[in-house]
What we know:
Distance between the termini: 21 Å
Number of strands: 8
Strand order of the largest sheet: 1-4-3-2
Amino acid sequence: MTTSAHVGRLLFVNLPVADVERSKAFFARLGFGFDPMFTDGTAACMRVGEQASVMLLGHQTFAQFSKLPMADPTTHALALYCFGVSSRDEVDTVAETALAAGGVEADGPEDHGFMYARSFFDLDGHGWQVMWMDPSKTPDRSASTTPTSV
């Protein structure tokens, strides 16, 4: 049984960063904008979609929201962040911009025919993937019982 998405539900992902201004500059180069209402010297609200944002939180600010110790993203992976773009060429443009801005390539290009992606680590070591999918070439998974993920 499938359930529908929660229309109108907002998503905020909180991400610890060592230097909020440096991280803002990095992601601005990748084309992301910031909501000034939720951005100051300790946090920046990076818009990634109409109803989705990533909160870039300085370490002290992040610690106020989590009762657990912060993991070092250069030695431990707790999540990988993926965002889509509108074309295959844009995947390469965003990835190359990330690398030129100080990011580190995580994997080489992945071409699955219907999907093309590249991955990089940001300035703090968080793993990001930028991807494009061609809906006309997406495999038909309706007969499959195996869950899939991107």
